[in-house]
Structures are given as structure tokens and as C-alpha cells.
Amino acid sequence: MDEKTTYYTDLITRYFSGEIQGDELRLLSDWLKQDPKNEEAFKQYQKTWQLVEKQHIHSSVNVNQDWESMQTKMAASGSVDEDKVKVVSIIPDRSKSTRLFGQIWKVAASITILLVSSFLLYFYFSKPANIVVTAEATTIEQTLPDGSVVSLHAGSQIIYPKKFASNHRNVELKGEAYFKVAHDKTKPFVVASGDARVEVLGTQFNVNTHSADGAIEVVLTTGKVSVYYKAKPKENVLLMPGEKAELNVEQKQIRKSANTDPNYMAWKTHILTFDNENLEQVIATLQNVYQTPILLSDNQLAGCRVTASFNNQTLESVLEVLKQTLDLQISQKGNVKEVAGKGCK
Predict the structure, then answer these.
(1) Total domains present in the chain
(2) Is 84 within a domain?
(3) Residue 256: CB partners within 8 Å, gap ≥ 6?
């Protein structure tokens, strides 16, 4: 699959999911008119989805409920009761002024310590607190103080202040997340992961700090983003829609290329598209999306080719289609799904 086809395949999936925007719809329409092969590819995806619909593999499973994202709202709130300060009036006896003089100083010193302690406690509890949101076993969405929405992949974590600063919006990411950033040209939005930085004003993009090869991946959906390292902000790389940046954190290098993976957002959209993809990569994608270990029992199966699309299907539904298409056997061993077969010529 070439780079341009991958981009338009992504538009096709966004079209069927109802997430496509006006400009993207016009681009897709123009692309379909350019070449009959493009229209044929579009129809092929439709046929595959119809095949999935005809398979009575949904049984009584509510697939929409299976895929419904859980919204978790975490609010950090705390209150500290204010201590009532008692004012004590000390009226010394002139006849005992010398003896009481030292006592007055002791009382003054105690009050001073009390005031300093109260100030430190007030400063500690009133300073902006960080909010930590972790997606445990499923994808969740979190709305940030500025209205931006973050979708967190299972096993990922985001840290952000209860209130953003006046001149910037900084968050820290561990794992994978999709950002829909509220536009604010006066406050750049910066995603930090170690020394890596992704800076925007308002756009939509995916960040994965736990990619298979150890690099940090940034894929841009709409708008523009600037990718750089904290120590080298002037050596930034600008991404346009459909482009990807890979950050080698050890060598402090950034490589930009066209995104060739139509399923980079499948963990969020639950839409899978495979165009003559080998089964080994298909299995790797399914493991990431469904967070379930899947094992190919024979390396001869790795080269089998798959052309199919799935929209909001359960893992069992997807595997059933693969089973019928490639004549596979699928078994359950503990928490691992094992895929076997004769292989493909």
C-alpha cells in the first residue's frame, strides 16, 4: 500500500464511522473520481463489511456495548479547615515587668512560629495540584481544564494541572493517547514524554510513547504540530495531516514520513482496515486493539494475506471472519488465543 492510498483509506474509515469532516469529504470524493481503481477499493470495503454483517457471529453479544468507551472523571479536591486564631491580651504587672518580659518574648516567638506554619500549610494546600488519570484495562476519555479531550489507551496515563498556567498548557503522557486540543493561540498546548515535546495550538493527533521499536510516534490527523526535544526546541519538525514523526529518544533524532498505517487509531475508533496485509501484522494490530494475547502456532501462517475491514466488531467476530477466509483453527489456551492452520501458498 503506498503512502497516498493509506491516507485515503484512513478517510474511508472516517467516512463510515461518521467522523469525516467537510474538507476531508471533498478530498475523498475527488480521489474516488480520479481512478476507477479507487472506486473499486471503496466498494471492496463495503462488500467486506456486508460479509461481516451476514455472519451470524454476533449472537446475543451487544457489540456496541462491548466497544463503548468508559468516561472516567477524576477530580482532585481537598479542603483544609482554617484554624481559628485566638487573640490573647497580655497585660503585664509593672511590679513584675522584669519577670514577665521573658515570658512575653516566649509568647511572641510561639505566635511567630504559628503564623509561619499556617502560611506554609496554606501555601502547600492552595498551590495547583496535579491530576493523574490512568486507563487501566480499557480506553477512557478525559476532558482537560481548557476543554480539550484526551482519549487514553488501556495501560496509559496522563498528568496535568488542575488549572493551566496563563501562558501555556502542559501535560505529561505515558503510553498512547489521542488528543483533540481546544484552540487557543495565546496558550500553546505541549505534550511531554521524557525529553520529547509535541506542541500545538489546536488540532487532533495521536501520540504513542510505547511503540514496538521503542520510539515515540506522533501521527497528525488535522491541523499542524511541532515536534522537538526539550534541549533543542529550534530543531523542531513540523507535521502536516497524514504525516508521522518517529522520535529516537536515545539518539535524540526525529524522522518524518507519511503515515502508512491505516489502523493507528483503531484502538480508539474500533475500525480496522487491512489491505493485502500479512497475517502476522494483522495479529499484532488485533493484540494492541483488543489487549488480548494472540499466538500464531505456525510461522507459515505469518505470510497469509488479509483484505478486510471491521467496524465495531468484537475480537471473536474478527477472528471468525479470518477463520472462514483463511481456513484457520482458533483455540483458547488460558488467556491466550491460538491461531493454527495449513498456511498459505
Answers:
(1) 4
(2) no
(3) 237, 239, 243, 244, 245
- 3-state class (DSSP) for residue 61: coil
Helices 279-290 and 315-326 sit at what angle, rounded to 10 degrees?
Answer: 170
In a domain, 280, yes or no: yes
Helix (H, G, I), strand (E, B) or coil at 4: helix
Look at the block and give the residue holding cell 486540543: 181
Range of the domain at 232: 130-258
CATH number at residue 232: 2.60.120.1440
Residue 88 lies inside a defined structural domain of this protein: no
pTM for the whole structure: 0.63
Judgement on whether residues 190 and 122 belong to the same structural domain of the protein: no
Among residues 263, 259, 261, which one has the least CA distance to residue 222? 259
Estimate the share of the chain in helix, then strand, then coil, as percent rounded to the nearest 5.
Answer: 35, 30, 35
Statement to judge: residues 221 and 159 lie in one domain: yes
* 174-214 residue pLDDT tens: 999 999 999 998 999 999 999 999 999 889 999 999 887 77
The string of pLDDT tens digits covering residues 212-253 is: 777 899 999 999 999 999 999 999 999 999 999 999 988 899
Select from 126, 162, 136, 160 the least CA-distant residue to 70. 136
HSE on the CB side for 134, CA within 13 Å?
Answer: 4
Stretch 93-115: mean pLDDT, rounded?
50
* Order of all β-strands in the sheet with 232-239: 130-134, 157-161, 169-174, 189-193, 196-200, 225-229, 232-239
SS3 66: helix
**What ranges make up the beta strands (E) of 66-194?**
70-71, 130-134, 140-143, 149-152, 157-161, 169-174, 176-180, 189-193
Residues 249, 163, single domain; the answer is yes
Burial (CB count <10 Å: 0-12, 13-18, 19+), residue 197: buried
Enumerate the β-bridge partners of residue 161. 130
Pick from 258, 288, 323: which residue ends a domain? Answer: 258
Does any domain span residue 19?
Answer: yes
136 and 247 in a single domain? The answer is yes
